[in-house]
Write a structure and sequence with these properties.
This protein is α/β, with parallel strands linked by helices. It has helices at 5-8, 14-27, 46-57, 71-85, 100-112, 127-135, 148-160, 184-196, 255-268, 274-285, 289-312, 338-349, 375-391; strands spanning 33-34, 95-98, 118-123, 139-144, 168-172, 200-204, 231-236, 249-253, 324-328, 351-352, 354-355, 366-370.
Length: 398
Amino acid sequence: MTDFYKTRRLPPYVFEEVNRLKAKLRNKGVDIIDFGMGNPDLPVPPHIIDKLCESARAPRTNRYSASRGIPGLRKAMAGYYDRRFGVKLNPDTQVVATLGSKEGFANLAQAITAPGDVVIAPNPSYPIHAFGFIMAGGVIRHIEAHSPEQYLSGIGRAVRHSVPPPIAMILCYPANPTAQVVDLDFYKDAIALAKKHEMFVLSDMAYSEVYFDDASPPPSALQVEGATDVCVEVNTLSKTYSMAGFRVGFALGNERLIAALARVKSYLDYGAYTPIQVAAAAALNGPQDCVKEMRQTYKHRRDVLCETFTKAGWHIPAPNASMFCWAPLPEQFKHLGSVEFSKRLMEQAEIAVAPGAGFGEYGDGFIRIGLVENEQRIRQAARNLKKFLSSNSAVAAE
């Protein structure tokens, strides 16, 4: 059977190979400790659920909603950016509610990409950053991004050698999967570079509230003076309020890009269920103690995981932000690559992780570990890991 044009442009999904093995083992009764997906396990704060239920019982909320988001939600989103970043946005022309940040990014790609358009993307990075544009008919210019500085310096070289010139560059900080963070000076340089080369900046900030220690809260690209001339930022409630299944995100910034996204969405959806949008507005406008508690929980898990895994024999660098650790493969397994190592770890240690190859070719020497299991499960995983590493001490001789 011949594949369709768009599916032919998509390589086999790396994570699917690991997920099939996970399903197979679970069907056999194996208790897999799953760090593979960034799927929050924390409960949604009660006041958000209360608002959801209250709204769901109200008459007429079962009707079609608004594809660009109900006015109250867009105002709440603009209010969050004003409070958090000091960025003032018009909720009618500079804000669109999306069905999660992933949908927002994908439909933004559909809205602005012509066949053959070049887009610059970091590698490794979250798959939708590249494949949203590939599915839209674009061409991705991958830039190695093991540090923000490496990525930014590579953009300048890529622009000089790209025909046609790139239409956009993608940013993602705190980064998924690498957990890297940047300061406002980085964004100033990125916006200046984009303006110099007449590119848009598409910033993914899904982890804006997941930061640790005494680190300053991650800044927004929109804080740069004049950023809205070229920039749209995508954010989400999935991680901040553990609302991943609600599918509520938002895009903010440049009016031209927001209008294009809103127009595409008007043909594709009627927006999220209205009570979900009402609950999302309550999350943004309501008490934020739950966000501090979320940070504390992930920080504690980070500390336990990094300490116990390192003691078990696999050094895990401690991230300053995001809900992930990004770790080089243990030395004796580097020759296997991230996919084969992930499969062995699951089969022999009952631990699931995300192979770095799933985030791009430059991620293959790494593993992403989600902070989505409780302390007890993390410590059990560390015990399993220690046995696994001990029994495979001679694997390098294979």
